[in-house]
């Protein structure tokens, strides 16, 4: 038998899932209305900020007993990635719950579940007359799935964000198929590189020198040798995750006009995500050498070159981590600290020296973020509310002001 609170939590979750806040060109209006209604039902104030038109940042606030202390930010993004509807068993925006209690929808894992779990945990804490030392801000941000430049990326630089006085943040995590929960304390550095390889143009029947194709080949040899090494590291050591190694992939090749004409240029795009142990300055030197060796005129264009963002510390210098960890120890639940292999909005917070952890209370769940038939089981969802019921007070009642991370 489900109690009324559980019923309400599931209804709210499914209602949020039914809002098609899907890329491209997301209309966030219904999400904003939804969050405002949720805030009203919790008796909490809500603010809507805009760094860019039609890119709302919605903040629900629960004032703490000591509101001058740095606050806790519980972040979630409102947007979801596109769907291939014909590949789904159920309507991806129908939030159908099957007889197993699996709730199907785009965003069920990534990450509307987490946002609702924050709110439902707060609902229960308030009903139990719990008060917290620090203020809690629950943020609903746009555009995470398109890198967040006009969402969290812009918001962290605003005066309004500064006024929130955030001292610690929780953000999205990922499911785990086993009993332990994943915990992300850092991310790899992404570089999106375009390498221009110009060369001698001419008839395809000749053996000209200095052609674009020869340069592409030399560059790709270097990148793919490095890729092999990283793949071997990962294959040889089962304790490693993708986040522990660097990944390199050729993603776009541009150039050429027709089969019998040697082009004047090829441009290759390479997606590089560097393990946190890689010396980026050193790598850039190596990359420049590769380009020089490849031949005349080869040059690099950076589409993205994310500088090193230090991971959040998981030691006694971070009292929020200590409080978070203790909650799991007390529950006898295991955490698996990892470097996230992709990227999420929490990196913008870490980049402005706010410690942040990526976490989602989804164990015994297959990873279906961005996949067909994304779902979350209702029991896992409800258990997650219970986890935040303990985690939120733990981090919000931390006494010490953390030292610089
Ligand atoms: Zn996400």
UniProtKB/TrEMBL annotation:
GO CC list: cytoplasm
Peptidase M20 dimerisation domain mapped to chain residues: 185-295
E.C. numbers: 3.5.1.14
InterPro entries: Aminoacylase-1_M20A (IPR052083), ArgE/DapE_CS (IPR001261), Bact_exopeptidase_dim_dom (IPR036264), N-acyl_aa_amidohydrolase (IPR010159), Peptidase_M20 (IPR002933), Peptidase_M20_dimer (IPR011650)
Name of this chain's protein: N-acyl-aliphatic-L-amino acid amidohydrolase
PROSITE patterns: ARGE_DAPE_CPG2_1
Binding residues annotated for Zn(2+) 1, in chain numbering: 77, 110, 172
Record-level GO BP terms: amino acid metabolic process
Active site: 79, 144
TM regions (residue ranges): none
Family indicated by similarity: Belongs to the peptidase M20A family.
């Amino acid at each position: 038998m489900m109690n009324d609170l559980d019923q309400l939590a599931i209804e709210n979750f499914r209602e949020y899932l039914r809002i098609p806040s899907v890329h491209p060109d997301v209309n966030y209006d219904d999400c904003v209305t939804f969050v405002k209604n949720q805030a009203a039902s919790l008796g909490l104030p809500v603010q809507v900020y805009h760094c860019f038109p039609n890119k709302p940042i919605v903040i629900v606030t629960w004032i703490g007993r000591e509101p001058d202390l740095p606050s806790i930010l519980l972040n979630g993004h409102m947007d979801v990635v596109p769907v291939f509807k014909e590949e789904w068993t159920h309507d991806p925006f129908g939030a159908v719950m099957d007889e197993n209690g699996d709730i199907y929808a785009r965003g069920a894992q990534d990450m509307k579940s987490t946002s609702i779990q924050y709110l439902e945990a707060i609902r229960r804490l308030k009903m139990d007359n719990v008060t917290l030392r620090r203020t809690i801000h629950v943020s609903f941000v746009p555009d995470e799935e398109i890198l967040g430049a006009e969402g969290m990326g812009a918001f962290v630089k605003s005066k309004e964000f500064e006024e929130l006085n955030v001292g610690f943040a929780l953000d999205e995590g990922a499911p785990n198929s086993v009993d332990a929960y994943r915990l992300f304390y850092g991310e790899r550095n992404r570089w999106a590189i375009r390498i221009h390889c110009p060369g001698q143009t001419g008839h395809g029947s000749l053996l000209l020198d200095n052609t674009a194709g020869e340069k592409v080949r030399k560059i790709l040899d270097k990148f793919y040798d490095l890729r092999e090494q990283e793949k071997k590291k990962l294959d040889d050591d089962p304790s490693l995750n993708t986040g522990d190694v660097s990944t390199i992939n050729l993603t776009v090749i541009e150039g050429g006009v027709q089969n019998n004409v040697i082009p004047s240029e090829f441009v290759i795009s390479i997606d590089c995500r560097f393990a946190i142990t890689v010396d980026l300055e050193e790598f850039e030197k190596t990359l420049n050498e590769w380009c020089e060796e490849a031949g005349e005129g080869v040059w690099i264009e950076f589409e993205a070159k994310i500088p090193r963002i230090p991971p959040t510390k998981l030691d006694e210098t971070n009292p929020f981590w200590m409080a978070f960890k203790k909650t799991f120890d007390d529950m006898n639940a295991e955490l698996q600290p990892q470097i996230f292999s992709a990227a999420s909005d929490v990196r913008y917070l870490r980049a402005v020296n706010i410690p942040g952890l990526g976490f989602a209370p989804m164990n015994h769940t297959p990873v279906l973020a961005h996949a067909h038939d994304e779902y979350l089981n209702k029991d896992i969802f409800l258990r997650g509310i219970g986890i935040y019921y303990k985690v939120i007070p733990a981090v919000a009642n931390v006494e010490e002001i953390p030292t610089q991370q």
